[in-house]
Amino acid sequence: MADKIFRVNMSDLTSSIEEVPADWQGLGGRGLTSTIVAKEVPPTCHPLGKHNKLVFAPGLLSGTPAASSGRLSAGCKSPLTGTIKESNAGGTAAQILARMGVKALIIEGQPNGDEFYGLRITKSAVTIEKESDLVGKGNFTVVEALMAKYGHGVGILTIGQAGERRMSAANISVRDPEGKLRSLGRGGLGALMGSKKIKYVAIDPEGDLPKIALADVDKFRAANKVFGKALVDHPVSGEALPTFGTAGLINVINGVGGLPTRNFRYGQFDAHDKISGETIKETIEARGGKSKHGCHPGCLIQCSQVYNDKDGNYLTSGFEYESIWAMGANCCIDDLDQLAQADHIMDDIGIDTIETAVTVAVAMEAGVIPFGDGEGMLSLLGEIRDGTPLGHIIGNGAAVTGRTFGITRVPVVKNQGIPAYDPRSIKGIGITYCTSTMGADHTSGYTIATNVLKVGGFVDPLKKEGQVELSRNLQIATAAIDSTGLCLFIAFPVLDIPEALTAVVDMINACFGIKLTADDVTALGKKILKTERAFNVAAGFTNQDDRLPEFFREETVPPHNAIWDFTDEEIDAFWDF
Amino acid sequence: MADKIFRVNMSDLTSSIEEVPADWQGLGGRGLTSTIVAKEVPPTCHPLGKHNKLVFAPGLLSGTPAASSGRLSAGCKSPLTGTIKESNAGGTAAQILARMGVKALIIEGQPNGDEFYGLRITKSAVTIEKESDLVGKGNFTVVEALMAKYGHGVGILTIGQAGERRMSAANISVRDPEGKLRSLGRGGLGALMGSKKIKYVAIDPEGDLPKIALADVDKFRAANKVFGKALVDHPVSGEALPTFGTAGLINVINGVGGLPTRNFRYGQFDAHDKISGETIKETIEARGGKSKHGCHPGCLIQCSQVYNDKDGNYLTSGFEYESIWAMGANCCIDDLDQLAQADHIMDDIGIDTIETAVTVAVAMEAGVIPFGDGEGMLSLLGEIRDGTPLGHIIGNGAAVTGRTFGITRVPVVKNQGIPAYDPRSIKGIGITYCTSTMGADHTSGYTIATNVLKVGGFVDPLKKEGQVELSRNLQIATAAIDSTGLCLFIAFPVLDIPEALTAVVDMINACFGIKLTADDVTALGKKILKTERAFNVAAGFTNQDDRLPEFFREETVPPHNAIWDFTDEEIDAFWDF
């Protein structure tokens, strides 16, 4: 049972291990990180200053045998958006932390001086040591060095050059089972870790860890079996995702005219077939990669993959739809190998692929490089790695880049780049972009499920009717799911198969010996959203921040000639719950 | 009588000359620009998009013989701050516009394409012509070319390379009587003019203009005489300013420990004597410059100067305290000739000296160049002129630069750089920085008058008592003064000599044949502030934006070890009127 709070103070380089306060005991993942941030971080503080905190928390089910439950949440006041932020990722860290008894790791304060530090977390202690060898190095080098030092069981959180430079698109990388990387991608958490002068956190299990004690093992097993069956039975989580990965969406979203192209000018990309999930699968198979791969142990969905270069050597993994869209259609680059190369570089320098590629499109808009220039994109990533002035601009995301070059066509909400679904032609996701407590974020209320994939019913993506309610219900459910450590993709079966939701609730109850109902889960989701919203309001955000940029309201997007036509009142009604 | 609204639509390159609506008739200068912006500009629009408008308006007394009444106001939604903005400057444009009958010039819309245009305004028409020769050129070249084309009587508004590139620290330059430049400096108005693709506005009087008809000439003359006497009698406007220019403040503010040094670390600069008004006066006199100079015809104060280089050639004019402070003490550069050279370059490329030099200090903080590096500063200005990535960063001001380099020590309020008075050791001005409707701006409520110069009484700068009320009263008075076309420095006699205020009111009444009282003037000031504040609230600003950066609250400033210690409630009480 994860029953300790590990707290690290980087101002005086001390640490403590604390009991979990009573009102945090039922929380995990996002529910816990957002609660801690709301309680301990002054909403108006500078995100890169000493008052911000970086909070890691495994989900409620992380470390248990529950299928696909290895997600790690990280929370803070976002250096990118200034809002509260939770980001979650796979990898091995959540499960190790949970089994070491770490309910949350809170990193606060800030050292003086320019030196970086490495943290080592064990069951009983935190060690803080100066680090110089790995400073300036990419994430892959860090992972190799730490695996050599602490063995192959070590969990790793690390930042690359982007995080060291406190660039607000920087992410935090999490070691995956093969020693590759997953990302706590959005919101600039890497910049925060860099501002605390932490190059890495090595989570050292020091050998085998005990299993998590379950209150009712039999009930847990039974529920997990039902849950696992639902995951493999559902056509999205059981078939589409394992077959084509998330990139299977390229052709699907292109088909409905919602694939933003050339910095959100068009809804379809002529060369979509060259970057599609189908083409990726063929390419992987021809080159001896893996078309199925789990981001953490116990994943039943296996939507990840290993993509090799022409010579059969590893090029990238976790080659996701959103990254491929952002670099591909939105920048008009159709060379899959260039995209994979860029994906690998971004993993290594530790920067969010969505934010960075949306930013590259904005730089293209500004004339820094032409649309379609794949080599130019790779060169911009080199500038980020090298910390040139242009690299600092791009590395700080789309809003800063648009501002710096005086561009108005900048697709952001609350300074975060809008991801891979045009909000004019898939209107539900536009409501999510506007109202998410974390800036434009598709994962916070993934209406694509219902607007496009017809999961959980169908709401016509081109009409306004029902979108606010859809986004609201999904954002509430997502806040709850993000608290469990379960992958968000479990939402597909949960939305369609009644037994799946029951099974999730049963697993939580069997784990902790409690008696939650589905209504309690909904109430938890609502409470998390309200907590996050209250933080943002105290930070100075208003309804005026819950808006799409001007051009979505004034330019139609082909092929449907759709426009963003929600009134302010309609958007603001999101919060009526 | 200025009785027409000139309106230019840059979307379709048309113009119209309109009657003045009834509710704008009693307004001028800032009162008029803010009223027009509040009525016609959507508060949430993108400042560089087609919905923003650029409004120029002479003051109520501009063009009359009233002493020191030649200020021109320009208003918009600021590209720098996102708030409403009014900036005013001397030069010849206000008086020419007023005598041509132009109550306001409203520029709206935005052309497609990359071509720039030049506007020519005459009494009866606006001509819009494509301009290519002057694009990419500095302001001095523009002024020379237009004086050659339209004669020496032409009024000129122009942008340099910074404005063309839509950099949000870009200013708009106004031709002065000698063909040199004054600046509509703060808030990034040059970026807005650049976004409308206007390189210059030539205001062509086509020969002699009629005098403005005064309703009661005798009464006007009598009041102007009293007013002029007060201006020359007062020790600040009549003696200190004409003798040493505004730079006379270097030693004064250094003396009270309020001269921000090394990016606001200290309140005194060791080398203050090397950049003081006294040293400037000696240097000017030794080199054959002018130590007295008016920025517009009819100025009785003559606080400007012409500063020559070692060889006696013109180097710069309008060499102001705030610019000298920002480049000097705050960047730790003590070579006066380097500062003058930088001042000249900034005039030529058309960028706000305060914002840019505050930004250079932030870049120094980030390690881009070392503190004290005058050549480095000149080199950064070259980057702005050339539009390099680093130039784009610096050219967008302190907030963008701080963000881009991940720096927390960034002295801004609402994204505008804090000017030349430390708010910890001169607390009244801190209240002005927080609550000004336009971001950190000393001119919007210049408490230095009372906190330091003991004009209008004395409020101890180191204590909190009385500062909110002082700033409020001065901001109200300033909003009214900024509507008259009178130089703000008339506030010194107005605050101390009862006849001076009466004379100003009498001049307005004698000009228009009306019967305002001093209370009406106060009511006007209040109404302007409330109008501006309402715009900002509708744009999404909250009380949380009325705050100084974190470090002012946490670091004391020597020599008084003063700290910023106002509570949120104390600051917010500013708006209780």
Description:
Two copies of one chain form a homodimer. In chain A, strands 2-1-6-3-4-5 form a six-stranded mixed β-sheet. Chain A has a six-stranded mixed β-sheet with strand order 8-7-12-9-10-11, with helices on both faces. In chain A, strands 13-14-15 form a three-stranded antiparallel β-sheet. The two termini of chain A are 34 Å apart. The mean pLDDT of chain A is 97. In chain A, α6 packs across α7 and α12 packs parallel to α15. By secondary structure, chain A is of the alpha+beta class. In chain A, a hairpin with a 5-residue loop joins β14 and β15. Chain A folds into three domains: 200 residues, Aldehyde Ferredoxin Oxidoreductase,  A, domain 1, CATH 3.60.9; 186 residues, Aldehyde Ferredoxin Oxidoreductase Protein, subunit A, domain 3 (Orthogonal Bundle); 174 residues, Orthogonal Bundle (Aldehyde Ferredoxin Oxidoreductase Protein, subunit A, domain 2), CATH 1.10.569.10. At the A-B interface, α5, α14 and α15 of A face α5, α14 and α15 of B.
Task: Kindly list the characteristics that best describe this protein.
six-stranded mixed β-sheet; 3 domains; alpha+beta; Aldehyde Ferredoxin Oxidoreductase Protein, subunit A, domain 3; Aldehyde Ferredoxin Oxidoreductase Protein, subunit A, domain 2; Aldehyde Ferredoxin Oxidoreductase,  A, domain 1
